[in-house]
Amino acid sequence: MRPVVDILADEPTADEREQLLKLLLDFNGRHTAHLMERPDLGILLRDPDTAEIIGGLYACDEYNWLFIKYLIVPEALRGKGLGAELMREAERVARERGCLGMFLDTFDFQAKPFYLKFGFEQFGELEGDAHTPRRFFLKKLL
């Protein structure tokens, strides 16, 4: 008997998402059991007076690659070396963990030239249109 295709027009529930993820991870695990799963990485920028988080970097392990998911430096503090410090620290941790490399994505209005200065190279692009910016995928082998 053929399975029923159940199209969810709205966002799936957390339980539905977890069930799909478990199926995928079970399948992937048969082929990637030798890869070590590492904890996520957070490097925070805090206001020295209030200790409030004002920026930082968040990354996660993606099959022996460090995926830099978020990087934000407040506009008023850009150009002062904070982004470079965040990237150097992320690379240090990635090397320490034995990652093959690091990868990320960025939009055309964001920081592609910044990442290129750190040795990243573009390996993919999604075209945009009048309402959607182009998106670039960059990687750096370690």
What does the secondary structure layout of this molecule look like, with pairings?
Elements: H1 14-32, E1 41-46, E2 53-61, E3 65-72, H2 82-96, E4 101-107, H3 112-117, E5 121-126, E6 135-141
Parallel strand pairs: 3-4
Antiparallel strand pairs: 1-2, 2-3, 4-6, 5-6
Helix- and strand-based class? alpha+beta
Overall 3D form: globular
* Percentage of residues in strands: 25-35%
Give start-end ranges of low-pLDDT stretches: none
Structural notes for this entry:
- With 142 residues, the protein is of the alpha+beta class.
- It has a single domain, classed as 3-Layer(aba) Sandwich (Aminopeptidase).
- It is built from three helices and six strands; from the N terminus they run αβββαβαββ.
- A six-stranded mixed β-sheet has the order 1-2-3-4-6-5.
- Strand 1 and strand 2 (53-61) form a beta hairpin.
Defining key terms:
alpha+beta, 142 residues, 6 strands, globular, Aminopeptidase, 6-stranded mixed β-sheet
How would you briefly describe this protein structure?
The chain has three helices and six strands. It is of the alpha+beta class. It has one domain (41-141): Gcn5-related N-acetyltransferase (GNAT) (Aminopeptidase, 3-Layer(aba) Sandwich), CATH 3.40.630.30.
